[in-house]
Structure prediction request, 636 residues.
Amino acid sequence: MASFKLLPTLFSIPNPNPYRKPTIRTCLSHRRPNVIVEPSPGSAKTFISRFAADEPRKGSDILVEALEREGVSHVFGYPGGASMEIHEALARSSMIRNVLPRHEQGGIFAADGYARASGRPGVCLTSSGPGATNIISGIADAKFDSIPIVAITGQVPRRLMGTDAFQEVPLTDITRPITKFNYLVLDVEEIPFVVKEAFVIATSGRPGPVLIDIPRDIQKEMAIPNWNKPIILHGNASRLQEKALLEEVVRLISQSKRPVVYAGGGCMNCSEELRRFVELTGIPVATTLMGLGVFPCTDELSLRMLGMHGTMLANYAVDRSDLLLAFGVRFDDRVTGKVEAFAENAKIVHIDIDPTEIGKNKKPHLSICTDMKLALEGINRILEKNAAKQQVAVEKDIPMTKYNDNASSTWRKEIDEQKEKHPPSYRTFGEAIPPQYAIQLLDELTNGDAIICTGVGQHQMWAAQYYKHKNPRHWLSSSGLGAMGFGLPAAMGAALAKPGAVVVDIDGDGSFMMNIQELATIRVENLPVKMMIFNNQHLGMVYQYEYEYGDSNSMHSYMGNPSNQAEVFPDMLMFAKACNIAAARVTKKGELREAIEKMLKTPGPYLLDVMVPHEAQVMQLIPDGSSFKDAIRGAQ
Prediction:
């Protein structure tokens, strides 16, 4: 990946599209400094090309070498007429493996899972027309959740563009609102520059998806690439210019009696710094769905997830707080509910790298626009310095206030009382399997160390609530977009990014079937993905909402065979058998532990079809547009 110097401190990069005007809001500094991008680690002096320096080669070969220079090892590519040249070039590469998904959406979700698990950009490749439009949901998902993806698409030849040619769509126009940036390459000599810049943009500041659209004639055109063309991007100076801002945060902490950390996906790269901050302050931590794992759920100061389907404890603590430290979050509606009632008695400190998120949904009392890692490092230095002064004061018998006293024993006692008063609970059904119990067993048997991928629906919320997430980049879920069908291909990407890790796709039968074709990819690649399907023969979350807010009729949410509701339909075991994947079905609670143990111990991929009652519900629940005080609590 390209490295870049940040002068004089940290910069967030706006859209520098050479073909189109930027469409996002920017926060420009008066100094308008530059971000100077250095050559990629693999380029020039260190990268050994298979071509002579002055040897002409196809645009497709230039593209593949540009990816090699960025350290790309896997591409999730589905070939077609407008991208065949690129696939031929990939076949000539000794550094990059193309993983063939069975659907383009599966490919981009796999690239997304790869990026989430590894922290490196995921790369996908499609042809033009329907192949390209099939990745739209994946691009939007990456934009919502700030995932670095470089999506490459073939395009019709330049002479046919604008003529409604076969499989022509204006992809840069379509994707402009949902990409961090996109390119239409109209000159073969621009390929090295575009690829290098795309990776910088995808990974810098707030990460996100970048699209590169390359006409087929450009792929065929011969050229001698210039790998040393400098990239100078006009950057945005961080607002973190003075230590005084961080000292003000520390001052607010020292004055508070009921502080709470509200941590999100922006803390993914600073988990250690966040843990050190909590160690120094003793402040309890609530996390968003995107933030699961940035602070261990097993820690006594963890409030676990807050929001619509969060714990009563986390929502209570935020509601009662007098200081809310919002770290790397965006105050989205699934967290805040009725936004004016959210943390209404608290002073809010909002730290985020994206200036457009500051004050967008909730106005803070103090805001700092910077990278969370830098902010926490700075705050921790101040806290450690003050702790050292405190130690000296103690030795000299000088009275001083401890920072750990800010999360006072009274506040801790109040939280502990609420924890005992509102423990997580769920309904049981005799010998039938409660899905929450299944996740608790999985957590126990994996010691909370598995990489958990999910689709979207009830199973997603149960997995968030009942698995004890301990590590960053171990929770992979479509959080902002809520894209069903995400779990299975994301697990495929995670297994490739983290060989040797236990990767489990916790899925629902409805979500699983949306990309079930990727079973073939998993089998061919022999990926040890474990699939635990909660099969209730329904679109469970839809059914639950019908039950809670409707007239209890199942309106188009039943996924089985209406003419024979006694049978399991469709039969997930048959899908697995068709792809030569080991599988089993479990229906009784008493048999579940043995079934999960077998799934985890079986080499290679394994599908466990867990039959669960469709009456099982996600609890607790804060209805749309409501506040914590309106929560529906407990087992129903």
Notes: The longest helix spans residues 372-395.
